[in-house]
Amino acid sequence: MTASQLMERVQEDLRKDYRLTFMERVRLLLETEDMFTDSPPALRYASTLRHILSGISKPVRPDEAILGSVNEEIPSEEERLEVERRYEIWWDIPLEEIQKKMLFYYSDEWRKCRAPWFISLGHLALDWESLIGEGLGGLRAKALKRLENETESAKRSFLSGAVQCYEAITEYILSYAQAAKAAGAPLQGERLERVASGPAKSFADALQLIWSVTLVAQKVCGCGVLNFSRMDQYLYPLYAQDTGSGVLTREAALELIREFYFKNNEIMAAIDHMSIETTEVKHTLEVTFDDPNYLTLGGLLPSGASGVNELSYLMVQAAHELRLRNPFIVVRYHSGIDGRFLDKVCAAMRDNATLVIYNDETMIKALKEFGVKEPEVYDYGFFGCNDPNIPAEEGGLRQLWFNLARPLELVLNRGDYPLEPKGDNVQKDCEFPLYDRMTSIMRGAYYGVDMGDVDAISDMAEFMRRYREQVRYLMREFRKGFERDMALERSLTDGRMRIEDCFLRGTVDAAKSWTFGGTKYHKIVNQAVGLATVADSLYAIEKLVFIDKRMSMSELAALLRSDYAGNDEMPLFLKKRIDKFGNDLDHVDRYAAEIADIFAGEMLLANGPEYLYQMWPTISSDRAFTLMGTFIGATPDGRKAREPLSENQSPAEGMDVSGLTALLNSVSKLPFRRITGGPLNIRVHPGSVAGEEGLKALAALLRTYLESGGMQIQMNVVDAKTLREAQKNPDAYRGLCVRVTGYSAFFTQMGKQAQEELIRRTELCN
Amino acid sequence: MGLVFNIQRFSTRDGPGIRTTVFLKGCNLNCAWCHNPEAIAPQAQLQFFFEKCSQCGRCAAACAKGAHGFNAGAHTFNRELCNACGACIESCYSDALRLAGAEMTAQTVIEVVLKDKRFYDQSGGGLTISGGEPLMQRGFTLELLRAAKAHGIHTAIDTAALAEFSVFEKLLPEADLILLDIKCMDQPLHKRLTGASNEIILDNVKRLVKMRVPLIVRIPLIGGINDDAQNASETAAVLRNGNVLKVELLPYHSLGVYKASSIGKTMQKFLTPPSERLAAFAGHFKCEVTY
Description:
The structure holds two protein chains of two kinds. Chain A is α/β, with parallel strands linked by helices. Chain A has three domains: 3-291, Anaerobic Ribonucleotide-triphosphate Reductase Large Chain (Alpha-Beta Barrel), CATH 3.20.70.20; 399-679, Anaerobic Ribonucleotide-triphosphate Reductase Large Chain (Alpha-Beta Barrel); 718-766, no CATH class. Chain A has 31 helices and twelve strands. In chain A, strands 1-2-3-10-9 form a five-stranded mixed β-sheet. A three-stranded parallel β-sheet of chain A has the order 6-7-8. A two-stranded antiparallel ribbon of chain A has the order 4-5. Chain A is globular. The two termini of chain A are 28 Å apart. In chain A, 53% of the residues are buried. Chain B is 32% helix and 23% strand. By secondary structure, chain B is α/β, with parallel strands linked by helices. In chain B, helix 3 packs across helix 5. Chain B has two domains: 2-42 and 102-290, Alpha-Beta Barrel (TIM Barrel), CATH 3.20.20.70; 45-98, Alpha-Beta Plaits. Classes of the chains: A alpha/beta, B alpha/beta. The A-B interface holds A 569, 572-573, 575-577, 584, 658-662, 665, 688-689, 691, 693-694, 696-697, 700-701, 703-704, 707-708, 734, 737, 739-745, 748-754, 757 and B 8-14, 16-18, 21, 35, 49, 51, 56, 58, 90, 93-95, 115-116, 118-119, 121-125, 218, 248, 250-251, 253-255, 257-259, 261, 290.
């Protein structure tokens, strides 16, 4: 498709009805409930896949170079309810039984659409390089060979399941080839025939093969949020070969990339899966919602050279032109990166294309500290949301959102939980209950260590020592619960196989699932939440108790337990008159750095060679900062009980009032050399980065941040809609600096009328 | 010591690159359309944004002069009694009070400026001293420029050029760039709308042009006042043969009207020229023009 044809399709897709559902899959899946029930789990999985793949339509649009779509329709209300009822029956079982069926992390929303005999969760990178290099037939042959030498029955069924999965996909692609030829798309049909079992011989072949497997893994099996990993690296040899021989032009390659991106968007549901309260999400029957796939560009190679090549440029260009939700592109920065490339990336980011930057200079060091070896450490990438991933060598969502405000509360309350004080009858064998372990969120009551009278805390060094102690306690409790789950799950995993196992490195050789020893690495992403809230709180304690001596530690703790009862001024005073993280103030920022360091350090202590799974630290709340705030009492930064915590790596809402450079200076003081991921979301006004000079300033801003030790940056160049929001809720937007004409002002300091004026002008320039 | 009313980091519109703009208090013009009216008076002033007041009454308790009063739910502020000590600001948690003008040493200001040096180095940015009129605090301005230069930081001053030329002669060796504000060429109009004749200003402009000092010329364009072709061509004529890097047209906006009310002043509202008018004005210049 030409760019303009594709843009029409994009426009069409933007108007997509949220109720459109891949119903063929749902119906075929439901049919299999009573089929293959005598087969071992791996073969039942493979048979289910084959049943669905042979039954679904193979829609062909001859104007598409890359084929692979599904038929979507709007189910009748009766049918939707009927399906929901079936879904509910599967999972209306005790929590312990759910654990045995899922054998993995889940969220309630995800679980709903997944059949117990056909569960895949994705959140990893397939071994794309082997897929295009060896083809499905090559992979099948390897598994068959391995099967010949295997006598153990569980392993035999694992391997047979894998073989049948490869075959099912091959058959699916061949049948798609027939459909293409019948629909007047002979070239596409021939390509599909080639890649149905053979390796990719051309750039276009590779994209077709990757897409066909993605469609199956994601849309049929339910592997959400795949990491396409370093596409500009592993596709480059074919790109160079085809452009060298003249069969592919730069423009034709760009068209293929655009189409590939569009295909990724086309299969997404028109919903926001994080907005779980909406009818759209509640009603969806789609197995992977609107999950976007990740893609990595640029970055260092093991040789120390830069990975930026012509394909990296094309892939940024296509993302800039289309500005779609998917793929989510991670550009990897390093010192000495091609400046022209970085400029292109910044230009795309300025236009709100879906690109973010990660810094090799910190990421590679951090991953090494947490056990990732060369050369694969150089291939690091991410899957959603901002979770680090070593492509093909590990994967899946084992995670914990570690609430940093918990240990703070535990210090102030001598190990008690103020929202639900511990009675004498509370007995816990693990602080992390099963539901929290399975869903990764620390809900309700958590108790810690009683370290004695808080008035005996003589200085902040002692306070921080106690904070570390509480972190250590919680980290070990999590490990205890996790290992207990592992022991149970391990006993139930033998003989099981999922589509993910067919496309990872090591799983087929070992005839073991990637969840238990099949791959080289096994990780738990341990995500710190509420960093700024806790840093601000620690400085507030220092100021109130030790510098100004306004109150004793026990008085402060009592005030917080009462949620500032009878004292309306205090939370305001604390919010407005005590320095906050995000304003380039060393005396506050040092607490953020120390917390992050304690977090990473204590995690290392809770890891070890005796464990299969190692925790990797990120600073990343996703959207859980609101939910996690509801479990936390009042904090010394002026935040009242149950209010949201700070988001990701950002300052607490509305507390950064010194401009972007100050904010970035503050965040760059964090010890990112031992943090393995997580986003910093910044808001940029379009006016401050407009024009050629604005673009240069933006590139310099990002480059300086990364050169100063920043890890990740992503931005919203804000529009009138956000300004409207700021009017309604000025406190949350105090740091929003806007360009009026030739100078800047803080938006919330401007009067209503001037705000209106600016909004109107903003709307005009949009 | 200088009197500073704002230090703004990540300025991208006050000269090249990422800059920190230091706004000095006090101006020798009194433009009817001024967008920073709180910068005009040469002494500190309390700004009161009445619509943000939460009626808590703490400011009245904090004020030793009795300038803040609360009568029947209304916050009254007697500016006559206020000595801009700032005590009430500390007591206000709703951002309704702000002090325009703080005494600061050059050392304190430079410490803030230095925090973003890495950003200047990466972007070709630096320090811009603006106002008010920085030449009103020439000693302080010179001190800041020298301190910045000593740290290898690019320097610019944003001035309307109403000063004897000897001031420029002193500052020019320390300033890498002049952001030159030119209001209008017509002398009576200038006098009427800014309170001062443009005679000295234009004389300085001509000298700066002749000396080929690097200039970015900034012209506030006020609808129906100075956005006409004659003003455009006369301004262009004065700048001809100068080292003008760029002309920036700044169309009028009414932010100043709101800010003026915070210091108990009322200001007239003007018209914002339409974009065709800006384009026509821009057409008179040979160099790059932005608006």
